[in-house]
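ok so heres the complex, two chains, lmk if somethin looks off
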Amino acid sequence: MHISEGVLSGPVLATGAVFAFAGTGMGLKKIDYDRIVHVAILASAFFVASLIHINIGPASVHLILNGIVGLLLGFAAIPAILTALILQAVFFQYGGLTTLGVNVVVMAVPAVLAHYLFLPMLGKSPTLTFIAGFLAGLFSILFSSILLGLALWFTNQNFFETSLAIITAYIPVMIIEGIVTGFCVTFLLKVYPEIIPKKK
Amino acid sequence: MVEENFAYGRSFIHKLDPKIRIIASIVLSFATALCDNLYLAMIYSFISIFLILMAGLNTIDVVKRLKPLFWFLLMIWIILPLTFEGDILYRFYGFKITGQGVVLCIKITIKSISILFLFTALIATMTVASLGNGLHRIHVPDKMVFLVLMTYRYISVIEQEYKRLLRAAKFRGFNPGTNLHSYKTFAYLAGMLFVRASLRAQRVHQAMLCRGFNQKFHTLDDYPPNRLNSIFLMGICGASASLVILEMIWVEI
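and the predicted structre for the whole thing:
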């Protein structure tokens, strides 16, 4: 989910950059050198997972999985997502330099929120785990698309219909991300529960 | 899949210091993004095309990189002229196309393509290792640089894992479709990817500690001082500043 270059206004770009800067700073503070390799390799997994294409009827969408990254990393998800976005820009030209801040906010803020909202629900019962995962996946994409729409709307009120179109277009993605995240979290808890951060 | 196609070349741009290229692309990209004048946006696009030509890149590959942008542009070209408020340019069957909407679409198209061209010409023409070096020298925190380099290093490894898992699933007759079973399979596949990534991270970290990792990456690239670097940076900053000032005067007239 990327906003394109050359669309947003100066104040929106600046706000995005400031929030991304502050968030990345906070995230980096939470990562010590014993954990940094873990964060980096999970960021690679996030990058690769975004190459997985899933069919919806005749079309296909790629997974985003910022919900999972948020659940697994918490605040450290912000620098991890920033890293993945920089590399996506270098290799695939998804977005460029000026929108990097806004894109980080769009993808990472919902991820961090998902961590704090849904992590406590994990592991209580298999059904609840699936529901928490489903909601984490659905919520992150929903909130990301709303943030993306807001960035456009703050740039120019005439973008209202475009924002609505984007949010509507992401509805199928939300459902698929929800299902995939739900199953993925169930799987992780069964196979390798250590990967899920301990509740404080 | 993840290849540094443009990173190896002998052009003038390839010879520039990564630090200079990063600063120049930030300055010029922001100047372009903040430009609100159609004619000046065209000048920025000429500058970006000039940089692409200077970097001596394969035109077809450069245009192919615009594919993700194309879908976004297509969407705004369909929606904006119909929904934007302004003077009506053309009317048919109750739909109206507004002049302001079309102008905005043209502006966005020119600006977005220019910024991506700038990025391709200046940043995509360096290896990720050089990018890390450049970021380090513009005082990006060590941890962030470490993350970029380490993530890049393991993307190809994790991608191999993904391909292996997918191959194994296909050997077992997995045929992706629009059904719950497919989604579940992909979810488990992604989950397995995270598990393997995490286990690998532990091993890599232990191996690094064994080799005396002291929380610092040392760069082997060496960029000798070159007068072209400062001339290039001054040229880019001068051009950006004059275009920004020109735009301010323009509005006042």
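quick notes: Chain B has two domains: 12-126+223-252, 141-210. thats all i got rn
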